[in-house]
């Protein structure tokens, strides 16, 4: 029988790895959802309805987790018993902390000066840095299997995610 | 040689009988009902040939209720008892209604949702909406000649949980079985996509009477996938009318008006807006009750000036949805326009400029939502095969709970696909804490005060421990209608305290039961006959579904003995359905439901295996 405790990768029939293309994940999800979505059982009995609802929800949880590179990496680490965002373990190299402060200052300046060009420059840089971290994560998780190092990269990645979110908010305010 | 078919006793003579189902667009300004007839979706007109029914309800002193044109005609004469655009009040408290000053109603603040004082007593927006739904239901049953299996009712994609729940309650009150609450832009995409056999990424720009939605969908191989949705549930064509109304007041130097003059001027404002879609200028003339004559000319240029900020307000959600979907305007293959308000030239120009293409207006923007809803209702009622399209929709607004310091911890982020279940663990703040207050909120902002409060409940019976030792798991579940339920349990000690809530918005189940009772008394319906009809519809549906499942998978998935047991339960139900004992039908239905749990699980299992197998083959191909 189907096992609700199967991990997200198993559920979607994918190899547990960081390097998965969005197309691969989307297609696996769409193919299975086509079979088990509650709408496929709309005129079936109550039991089938309830099961379809549970399975479909479970599948969607797997999908929304795996489609985000950040959540996917965090989940891979969790499968290794590592909580990358454990509040007791927030070690971050000093130079990255300095870099963080620097980025934040630039964000504040761009906002204060209502300068969309400076904001865009900052966004481009942050995106490039995040892409770079994604490459690093792929190497650490899929090849070197250095999970401790991956957790540290993931914390940096999270900072960039948040920074980019804030940049979006400022974009919104400026337009 | 063709053989004559003879039906088994108690079984319907037409096993593939068309099941009657409708799609209902319960709009702010107008409502419609549509169905699929001979494979084609059609809007069902009223006895005067009108497709649109104004969403207006008037309560009379003699206890009578008028809906639609009859009610609209009295809006100026009887403004306090004639409820216009009730959709704006669904699931809303008094503090959520900023435009109170321009409304002629006497609102009563009630927990969860406002009530409106009328000559027939205080009415909840849910009751008012139910009156509209009742009229549409009756129209459909007359046109189709039978009891409806159910209805798909559309809601703005940007409706929050309170507004969705209120809509579902209204349907319940009107005696409609809700097959699905469907997002309006998604319904429009179904109608558009199927009509044009389109594939690719589309944006649906839906400006209704009181709500604005922008959804981005990917149409691919029979799957309608909502990639992102955004909007404003308090922005619509009504706001453009209100701008003209304010302009008239300014031009004439009027400050205060009696309520019936307000209603009159609002009607003139709406007419002027509609005329401006066809003509470069329009003359507004009317006589107020005090004898003042109003005679003004409004040009398109002035109108565009007055409403430019409203048009701009619709573009922010367009940007947000594109960003959430990770797309640029150039990635959009077509922009489908929905809602009567999109007829305004200023809207079409702004959309064309933003997306860099002429929007698609080949569908009637008033009808497309109801038509799409009817198509989906047809599928959900089981009138089509398994190889039909599938809808994958999303939650429009993030769901979370309040944590220390009045901050929100998001549990289900916006644009997550539904149905979905997500859990998060929390811990206690103080030593010896045995209860935890859980406050469920919806919205994008970081502070609880800026989000909508959906429910508060307490998890009790946590064993006393030092702060931070307890582990409380809070699970959020959003079903395919986009409705939320929340549960919490304490994990660390094995002592399970468990609560489950469905947020309720001012209407308790008991209240709904009372309203139902009243509504039925009012309609002088025979309760017993109604219950029997409902039990029969449910029983027949279950029987047909089980027989179909047996025909498809009985051989492969059941032993001879298991199969015989289920067939026996089917025979029992068929026999009960032939009689008119409600209790017997319910019991036999429950028995068959119970007896097919394992079979259903095996079928689901087989489906997933099939999907995974197909998927792996594809992987190898690549």
Description:
The complex is a heterodimer of chains A (175) and B (622). The longest helix of chain A is centred in the C-terminal third of the chain and has 28 residues, at 116-143. Chain A folds into 2 domains: 8-67, Orthogonal Bundle (Helix Hairpins); 94-174, Up-down Bundle (Monooxygenase), CATH 1.20.1280. In chain A, α4 runs antiparallel to α7 (147-174) and α6 packs antiparallel against α7. Helix content of chain A is 73%, strand content 0%. With 175 residues, chain A is mostly helical. Chain B is α+β, with helices and mostly antiparallel strands and 622 residues long. In chain B, 38% of the residues lie in helices and 24% in strands. Chain B has 14 helices and 27 strands.
**Any low-confidence stretches of chain A, pLDDT <50, length ≥5?**
none
The oligomeric state is: heterodimer
Distance between the termini of chain B: 48 Å
Strand content of chain A: under 5%
What would the principal axes of the Cα set say about the shape of chain A? Answer: globular
Largest sheet of chain B: 6 strands, mixed
CATH architecture of the largest domain in chain A: Up-down Bundle
Which H/E pattern describes the elements of chain A? HHHHHHH
Separate helix tally of chain B: 14
The greatest interface here is: A-B, 39 and 59 residues
Radius of gyration of chain A: 20 Å
As a whole number of angstroms, the C-alpha radius of gyration of chain B is 26 Å
Query: CATH homologous superfamily of the largest domain in chain A?
Result: HscB, C-terminal domain
DSSP E strands of chain A, number: 0
Question: In DSSP terms, counting alpha (H) and pi (I) runs of 4 or more, how many helices of chain A?
Answer: 7
Chain-wise SSE layout:
The complex is a heterodimer of chains A (175) and B (622).
Chain A: H1 8-12, H2 22-36, H3 46-67, H4 69-79, H5 94-112, H6 116-143, H7 147-174
Helix pairs in contact in A: 2-3, 3-4, 4-7, 5-6, 5-7, 6-7
Chain B: E1 21-26, E2 30-37, E3 40-43, E4 53-54, E5 56-59, E6 65-67, H1 69-73, E7 82-84, E8 106-108, E9 115-118, E10 121-123, H2 125-144, E11 150-155, H3 161-173, E12 178-183, H4 184-196, E13 200-207, E14 212-220, E15 223-232, H5 237-252, H6 259-276, E16 281-287, E17 293-299, H7 300-325, E18 334-338, H8 345-355, H9 368-380, E19 390-392, E20 399-403, E21 407-412, E22 420-426, E23 436-442, E24 452-459, E25 472-478, E26 484-490, E27 498-501, H10 509-523, H11 527-557, H12 560-578, H13 582-595, H14 597-621
Parallel strand pairs in B: 1-11, 11-12, 13-18, 15-19
Antiparallel strand pairs in B: 1-2, 2-3, 2-4, 5-6, 5-7, 8-9, 9-10, 13-14, 14-15, 16-17, 20-21, 20-23, 22-25, 23-24, 25-26, 26-27
Helix pairs in contact in B: 2-3, 4-9, 5-6, 5-7, 7-8, 11-12, 11-13, 12-13
